[in-house]
Write a structure and sequence with these properties.
- This protein is α/β, with parallel strands linked by helices and about 250 residues long.
- It contains eight helices and eleven strands.
- The chain has helices at about 35-45, 60-70, 85-90, 110-125, 190-195, 205-210, 215-220, 240-250; strands spanning about 10-15, 30, 35, 50-55, 75, 100, 130-135, 150-155, 160-165, 180-190, 225.
- Strands 1, 4, 5, 6, 7, 8, 9, 10 and 11 form a nine-stranded mixed beta sheet that branches. The chain has a two-stranded antiparallel ribbon with strand order 2-3.
- The longest helix is centred in the C-terminal third of the chain and has 14 residues, at about 240-250.
- The protein is globular.
Amino acid sequence: MSDFPTTTYILGVLPSRWGSTRFPGKPLHLIAGKPLIQHVWERCKECTLLDDIIVATDDERIAEAVIAFGGKATMTSPDHPSGTDRIAEAVLAVPQATHIINIQGDEPLIDPALIDELAAAMVADSTLDMATAANPLDPADPAVQDPNVVKVVTALDGRALYFSRSPLPFFRNAVDELPVLRHKGIYAYQRSFLQRFITWPPSPLEKAESLEQLRALENGASIKVISTNDTSPGVDTPEQALEIERLINSSGH
């Protein structure tokens, strides 16, 4: 942090809900002997640019587990319409935070270097409201057609133009070296922008695609998209948890 202004304070927030239609209680599911949320926390602790890390949860069981392994937890309302709203409530407990990184609580193999890169991008450019990340895909990859895989297109300066569940862009003409960008659900915010975001009602495109980042774009936000080779998988089902455990055991993490 020595190269940043002394007023800069970067907070990592891990939203963690108990309820999940496919995997209730997911944050406390044991993977290689530790709760899923602990794996994510420990990866975040490897970051060099985070001043603090908190878990934002709506369930006392998760909060107790986080405190038990030495983490920090903040209770939030169970009624938030989006993860961003939950983040905004959590950061009220940390008034000194100037920048917030929203780190998915179900990605136990997240690359700490990517989190640091997002933090650095936000601090370096005060014109940015948000930053996020995306993985390049071959246009022929079946994931391009999958509506569960969110795609993003950017301007020449790397700022987001649009996010969609549809194939994006549509290749009427083949363009060499133009990949499809799969959006990775990690966000960095200026605190002041986060406070504005939650005052806006859900927007038409957001409701159509069920993508809250479109609310930001529809209201004129500037979102930097960092290209990354971090393809760390998330955990949405017990079967995926078993695969993550295999990866963790084989890597020695």
